[in-house]
Amino acid sequence: MQWAGSRRRPRRLRATPATRGLVRETRLDPGQLILPVFVREGLSAPRPITSMPGVVQHTLDTLADTAAEVVTAGLGGIMLFGVPETRDATGTGADDPEGILNVALSRVRGVVGDDTLVMADLCLDEFTDHGHCGVLSTDSGGRTVVDNDATLQRYAAIAVAQARAGAHVVGPSGMMDGQIGVIRDALDAAGYTDVVILAYSAKYASGFYGPFREAVGSTLTGDRATYQQDPGNIVESLREVELDVEQGADIVMVKPALPYLDVIRAVRERVDVPVCAYQVSGEYAQIEAAAANGWIDRDRVALETLTSIRRAGATSILTYYALHVAGLLRDGPR
Ligand code: PBG
Question: What is the rounded distance in angstroms from the CA atom of residue 42 to the CA atom of residue 25?
């Protein structure tokens, strides 16, 4: 039977894997994926993170093994988060060369050389006893606040310590105003002009970070709403990325990813630097929980979410599935 317009049949291009493969607009490549990892001081064996099945807090030795796997899998990078044994008000462990994150950075850099990018989360929250991303002070009304400008001085010192330890890339995630400029200046003044700044530019105050708090043993009470963004806003994200690009961000990031695909798209259209997105702990935990119940197919959904994040405009993606998905891309889904 013929019908009006029947010469145009989009299904023709969906007929076989070969036709679908030919016309697929968005593909995933392991080189676009970055694996976030946790390394905990004083551990003798890796410790599972219950809210993130399959993800562990590493020892230095198991971290080194994982870094080697990252290279073999052809991933774009490995992002390190440190979990120290002791914490204090100003997070001195973060810029101490003997601090867990800096020790881990040099260990990992020694393993991978320049074969993948060694990245460091640049923040204070894992290192402060109060769990905030900055140092605290008391404002004129007597309230305890996160002190923006005092925090910048700490970030500058941490950036230099991380570069010295071997980071190719620093990832400032604390959402303080002016952080990118201060960090760029500090790196340049110390001679680290080639160290890349991956700016967590549009970072929302999100419930999706829940499992991460377990992963880093966070001590935070309260929330981060005075520095992370309100989930209702998108124009604010454009302002944040523009400020970061002006201050020298090499790559900007949107975080979380899947609930904020519109933000990824808007940012992609606004800036002329690469856009990264972070598929965060709660996004991972959702997929894992549903898959464990047999409600969804883990591999399929992992690939679909990452493809969607790329389709929205992300150049690269931080994901706890990075190694797993690299395997799927290589060997095909199980
Ligand atoms: C802060 C930081 C957080 C995450 C990455 N960097 C937590 C927060 O802002 O509360 C969350 C990552 C995730 O949930 O996977 N240094």
Answer: 46
204 carries an active-site annotation:
no
Please state the rounded mean pLDDT for residues 132-147.
93
From the CA of 126, give the closest atom in ligand 1.
Answer: 16
| Tokens standing for residue 297 | 């197919």
Token pair recorded at residue 176:
């303080």
173 lines ligand 1 (CB under 6 A): yes
The tens digit of pLDDT for each residue in 323-332 reads: 999 999 998 7
Provide the 3-class DSSP secondary structure of residue 239.
helix
What CA dihedral angle connects 284, 286, 290 and 292, to 10 degrees? 50
| Residue length of the chain | 334
Confidence of residue 219 (pLDDT cuts 50, 70, 90): confident
pTM of the complete model beyond 0.85: yes
Per-residue pLDDT at 200 exceeds 90: yes
Q: Which residues pair with 37 in a beta bridge?
A: 80
Tokens of 305: 């979410």
Q: Is 284 in the pocket of ligand 1 (CB under 6 A)?
A: no
Pick from 183, 149, 180: which is nearest to 163 by CA?
A: 183
Instruction: Find the farthest-apart pair of alpha carbons in the chain and give their distance in angstroms, rounded.
Output: 79
Map tokens 């690269």 to a residue.
Answer: 316
Q: Is 286:220 a contact under the CB 8 Å cutoff?
A: no
